[in-house]
Amino acid sequence: MPDVECPRPREASVDYHACVGEFLRELRGVRTQRELSQLLGFSFNQVGKWESGVTHFKWRDLFGLCEALKVPFEQYFREQFWSFSGEFRPSLTAEEIWTQLQGLGAPWVPGGSISQDVLRQRKTLKRWASMEQGPDLVEVFQVLDKVPSMLVSFVSYFVDVEKMPSLAPAYEQFVRAMDLVGRQPLCVFVNAALQLSSYRSLSRHCDEVLAQAIGCSQKEARSTLMLMQSHGLIFFDGKKFHPSVFDFSFSAVRKRKLRILTKFSTQMAADRYPLEPLTKKSPSTSSVRVNALSQKAAGEIMGLVSQFHHQVAQVVERDRGFNKEVVQVVLVHSFSADSG
User: Fold this and answer.
1) In this structure, are residues 209 and 189 in contact, taking their beta carbons and an 8 Å threshold?
2) For the segment 150-189, what is each residue's pLDDT rounded down to a tens digit?
3) Could you list the residue range(s) of the whole structural domain that residue 158 is in?
4) Cα distances (angstroms) measured from residue 240 to each of 86, 148, 209
5) Is residue 135 part of a domain?
C-alpha cells in the first residue's frame, strides 16, 4: 500500500445562479432572447432578465418555457423521479423533489430530538407550497444537488451539460465516478466499507478488515482501492483511506453502463447469500417471487417497491450520526419478464 499522502479530492461546488442562467441559454438554443420572450407572450425581453438574474426564474416558469419550446418536460421528470405518480403540476412536482431528496420523513436524530436541519427543510417546503409562483429554479437546483449525481442527471435531460461551465467540476466528478463503477462495481462496496467503525478505528490501513466487511478477497479490495485512488475519488492520509465525497448514488441515472452494478450485486446475492439462520451480526434475507399478473397488479407492486425505497431512505437518514458496523446491500428487482 502507498505510504505517501496524495491530494484529497474536493467536493465540486456549484454557482447555482450562474447554473440557471447557463441552463436557460442552452435551452433557448439558436433563438434570440427577444424571440423567445415574444414566443412566451412578453412584450419585452423577459428571457434576458431571467438569464442575467435580474428577475428570478421560477420552477413554475420552466413548465411554460418547456411547453413553448416543445421540450417533453413531463417525460423527463417522470423518468428522473420514476416513483412520481401524481398530476404533473408545479406544486406537486416541487413537493416530490423535497420528499425524495430532503429526508422529510426522517425527523429523528440521536437523543430523540428533531434535527434543526429537518425543521428548516419543513419550513422551506411550507414556504414553497405557500408561494403563488413556487420556488426559484435556483432553489430547486440546490435541492437536487443534495444527491451528487442528481443535478447533473436532471440537467442532462434538457441540455448538453458539457456546455455549462458552472457544472464542469461536478460533471467531471460525475463522469469519473460513473465510469469507475462501470469498470469496477466493487468500488461502491469499498467506499461503503471505508465508512465502517471497524475500519475507522484502525491506526493503519488493513486489507483484511476491509475485505471481510465487503465479502471479497484481500486482492480484490486492494486492487479496487488502487483504482479508486488513481481516479482521485478516495484520499490516503499516509495511514488510512478516506471515502469518496461522491456517494456513488445513481438511483435515478439511466445509463446502460451502470447495469453492471445491478448485475454484480445480483450475482453477489446468488453466490454469497448466507444460508444459515439469521443473526444480528448478519442481517440478511432473500426472496424471489415470479407471478402471472394483470397490468393493474403489476402497477401496484411497482408502487410498493417505490414505497419501500422511500422507507429505506428514511432509515438511512435516521442512521446519520451512529457508528456504522455493516455494509448492508439492499437489492430489489421488479420487472416484466418480456422487458428484455
Assistant:
1) no
2) 889 899 999 999 999 999 988 888 888 888 888 899 999 9
3) 16-171
4) 47, 24, 12
5) yes
Residue closest to 101 by CA, chosen among 85, 124, 76: 124
In degrees, rounded to 5, the angle at the alpha carbon of residue 234 between the alpha carbons of residues 228 and 238 is: 115
Q: Within a domain: residue 154?
A: yes
H runs (alpha helix) in 113-214: 116-130, 137-144, 150-158, 168-183, 186-193, 197-200, 207-214
Q: Can you tell me the distance from the alpha carbon of 193 to that of 307, in angstroms, rounded to the nearest whole number?
A: 27
Q: Write the single-letter amino acid at 146.
A: K
Does residue 72 contact residue 101 with C-beta atoms inside 8 Å? Answer: no
Q: How many of the other CB atoms lie within 10 Å of CB of 117?
A: 13
Q: Residue 124 has which C-alpha cell? A: 422551506
Q: How many domains does the chain have?
A: 1
Q: Most confidently modeled of 115-129, 189-203, 248-262? A: 189-203
pLDDT at residue 117 is higher than 70: no
Look at the block and give the residue holding cell 447554473: 19
DSSP string, 61-123: HHHHHHHHTT--HHHHHHHHTTT--S--SHHHHHHHHHHHHS-TT--B-TTSPBPHHHHHHHH
Distance in angstroms (rounded) separating the CA atoms of residues 52 and 158: 20
And the C-alpha cell for 166? 458552472
Chain centroid, CA 299 distance in Å: 24
The CA–CA distances, whole Å, from 70 to 74, 75, 192 equal 11, 12, 42
Q: What is the pTM of this model?
A: 0.73
